[in-house]
Here is the input.
Amino acid sequence: MSSLGLKLHTPEESVTINFADVIRSVPDGKSANPISDYFEVTEKLKKKLIGSEHKDDAEILGLLTLGVISAAEFYVRNIVASVPHLCPIAQRHCELIVVPSGSFSYYAGSSYPHLVSCFDHESFADAAKIRAHSVKFTGLKIGDGSSVGIALEEFNKLCELRHCLVHARGYVGLKASSGLKLDSRRPAKVLLTQASALDVLKVCHNLVRALNSFLANGLAERWVERGVLSGEWEKDDILFKALVQLFWIKGEDGYGGVAYRAYSPYRKAALARAAAVLAKVGA
Amino acid sequence: MAKTQAAPDLAPAQELVFEERAENLTQTDLERLTVLSDAEKAIVKKLIGPGAKLLSGPRGSGKSTLFRIAFYEAARSRVAIALYVNYAKALAIEPLFHSHADAAQLFRQWVLAKIIAALREVADVWSIPLTAHEEAQVARAETYIDALAAGSVPSNLGLSPSGVTQILKQYAERAGVARTVLLLDDAAHAFSVKQQREFFEIFRELRSRDVAGKAAIYPGVTSFSPSFQVGHEAELIEAWFRPDQDSYLPTMRQIVAARFPTFAPKDPRAIDVLALASFGLPRGFLSLCYLVEDSGNTTNSRKAVLDAIGVHADVVRTVFSNIADRLPRFQNFIAVGSELERAARAALRDYNRGKETNRKSGSVAISEPVPDSLQRVLRFMEYAGLVRRVENLSKGVKGTYRRYLIHYACLISGNSLSLGKSFKVSDIASALSRPHAHELVKTKADTLLGTDFEGKCTLALPPCPKCNTERIAEDQKFCMNCGFELKAASVYQDLLEADVEKLPLPKRKIEALKELGFLRVKQLLSSETQSFRRPGSSIGPVWAKRIATAAEEWVSV
Here is the structure.
């Protein structure tokens, strides 16, 4: 060992962390569906955000905000991976996607679909990625100027914010400055106020609501167009109920919590389509 | 402007004479009923000329008439293609802002689609048919507009300001003219700031060497986009007669002679008094004449005139107080405005007491600086036509004053001219027709309203519906106490649900409507055949039309 060496500060030591103490098994499968799971989690974070304890602490508010963005990101993973489990067309669409072999057993018995394993190496804090995975796993393309497209654009700005908070202790780099469309091109820092943290929460809520509506409506319409729905409740019952249950927030829905009531316009459309097909065949 | 009644037979045109909205008149009727003053001719020239213009005036000041005349004049003189586009129903798509993240885009597409759809009328008037491509574009635009009006969300039209400009340019080339003029009526969208800003951004983007936008706006309450600078982006033109100017009474006499030739009150000066009481608004003037005629009082014309002015003053105040009904968050500002109007009238009454009739005043000068909160109040008053800002008064070292005329009907009915108990109708005309420039009440905001008025000028925001905690800010998204997600109410939905009492109509007509079972504004709007027009009730064909107009205007901006 050389006798040379600068002693400029306290030296490092041998330090390890016992991850078994840090990472625990969690009870899972409690939430009704991805959107309800998202709102359950963010409801708890919101209580911390509005508490007077941290109302002037930009750093704590920033960390709580990260939790909110993370919850939205997790919702996206969860719902995109859930669609192929529900939709026969999506299932066929993504049948060649490679899945880690341990996925089934890892998620067996949980409420999460095994396809979330496909995203283990991915970040969803990026609008382009969300768009790409939506097409890849569901076959549904998010239009640029659509309601969900706009909600996604706003969320993308949060992703820049998240990047600053996670990777640069709040400092806004040049790329983020450009992404956030700031006028200034000088170093700056993210200092959230209570009101702006709640704005972030609202943007995340908006993305989740918009994406949830987009997927639910997109699937139901596709089922009509492709003849997946027969127009007879006895035949469509299981599939249609599963759709409603994957996407609704019971209590906020417009059907008094009865999935069948949502079926009526789709029944009519499916029967009309069937009649049109029959007429064509007959002709 | 004066609308002439050339046809000797009034009977079939009686409803037309009292048609208060120019956009509802055909070309023949508009031309038959209209004569322009020199000032208005100059405005029309500017409207069909190059350059962006903003035509400002309160309701009933004749903005639509000027636009429609400019539309036909452009076609007659073949100097430029003029498209008339009416955005009065902009508020009907406001609920989208509460249910769609892309509402701003939908609104932008709607604004552009309305321009494209207006090409159909141009093709009719110019007799230059649309090409197959243009026809297809117009048909798509019409479908889009209809879909949004029905509450559904159509797929994106893909229109852009430059694309629209291109379509217009091609049509203009075929017509053999170099320019296109866009006459964008009811563009103020007075109560939706988001829509206003989007609109003026498009207005700015549409501007080119070949296309000139002209937009009708309301004074005081229009919000422009951050990049839109009035003066730089567009010239402001006033479309509101000045009742204190020499040319005013001759012009108004022309109007009544043209549009209501049978109106001949016993005292000929009554016409001047009614004109002054209308405060420069032709629609108000015709309404006053009709109220006098409708009273059937042939023996006591003084009483009929004063009664009509009293009713009209109530209507004007109702238009103002309606702002609080339509936008409850501004109710405190409106309350301060009502207080200001009362205080200004009282100050004028004191000032005018003992003055010679020809030295009476109808204007109040408030010393600068006028606090921001009071400026907001005054802007709402201007929008409703309750006050009119005129030239500032500079008193050198003593400072500058903002000068406002107070609505003459309110002054007359509130006895603010202090004419005594047994004044003649002609005294009102003498007092107001040529006001002396030096006769005015110079005052301070504090003097009129008390020192604490600024504290009253706060937004009245609804508390949290869950825990009743007051909101801190207008755009607050969650309750800061319980975290409940706060939703902004749809202005349009609230307007539809409003009581018919809120409409600026005489009490007698409101009572008649209620007796007929019309309790809500939405009932009047859904009654397309005007089933509230009943023989035997006080609602005949003329009033039925005016009621329908009032209901449409209630939800228009």
